[in-house]
Amino acid sequence: MRRALLLLLALWLQGCSTPPPALHRQLYVFGTLVDVQAYGVDEAQFSQAVTALQQRFQAMHRDWHAWKGDGRLIRLNRAFAQGRCAAHDPELEAIIRRARQYEVQSGGNFNPAIGRLIELWGFHTDDFPIEGPPPEDRAIQALLAQRPSLTDIQIDERGICSENPAVMLDLGGFAKGLAVDEALAILAGYGIRDAIVNAGGDLRVAGQHGTRNWQVAVRDPGRGDALLRIAARDGEAIFTSGNYFRYRAYAGERYAHILDPKTGYPVQEIQSATVIAPDGALADAAATALVVAGVEQALQVAGHMGLEQILLVDASGTVWLTPAMKKRVRYIRAPVAERILR
To answer: Which of 86, 163, 193, 266 could form a disulfide with 255 if both were Cys (CB 3.0 to 4.6 A apart)?
Structure first.
C-alpha cells in the first residue's frame, strides 16, 4: 500500500512539473497578421499580455500608418507638404533618428522618405496585385529631382521640420520591425521569457521552445513553398523582404512594390533578402536595403549596417549568402544554385 502511494505521489509530482504547452494567438497590424506564441506560461498570464499587445498594435496602426486615417504620421507628412513644422513628438522623433541612421548606413538603399514615390506607383493599398499601367516616367523623374531624404528633416526648437515638400514618410519598410521589438518587450514585462512574434514571416524570438530553439522557415520566392529553415537563437530577429506578393501587373509586366530610391523604379534583380540581426528594426530596414542593393553591393551595405548573416535570392532562383549565414541555414530542398558572398 505504502509503495503504491509513493508511486502515485511520484506520478503526481511529475505531472505538476510538466510545463504548459505553447500558447498561440493572432493579432493584426499594418495589414499583416501577427502570430504570437509563448512557451511555459499559463493561459491567464498569456491573455493579459496579448490584451496589452493588441492595444499597443492598435495605437501603432493608427499613429504610424502612411495613408489610412488621420494619425500622427499622416499629420506630420501634411505639415511637410504645407511647408510648416509639426509639433514635437518624442516617439516619432526617435523613429526618424533611427531610420535616418539606417538610410545613411545603407547608402540610401533604405529610404522611408520616398512615400510620394510609393503613392505614385499606387502601392498605398492593401489590395494586391494591382492592375493597370505604371506611372509616367516624367512624373517619376520629377519626384526624383527633389531628392527626398530623411536627412532633409530637422528636429529643433521649432518642432519637426522639412524644407523639402517632396518628403513623405512611409514606415512600411521599418514599422513591422519596430512592432515586433515592442511586442517582445511587452511580453517580457508580463514575465514571458520564451516567445516568438511573427509578423507575416518577419519575426523575433526570445528564449526557446522548451529544450530546443525556435525553428524558422524561409520561403522560396519563386515557388512559394519553404526553401530552408533556421534555428533562431535568443533575441534574434529574422526578417525577409520580397517582391512576390505585392506588385503591379500590366501588359505582361510585373512591377514589384519595393522601389529603388535612386531610380524610382521597382527592383528586378533580387526576389528576396533575409537578414539575421539583433533586433527587428535593424533586420527590417536591412532586408529592404539589400533587395535594392543587389548582389554587387550586398556585402558593402551589410557591413555598414553591422551585419554578417544575410541571404539573397536572385531572379534566377540562385541563393547568395555569406559564410556566417551558410552555417545557420538548413535546406528543406536544394536551391537552383548556391553562391557564397565574399
So the answer is: 266
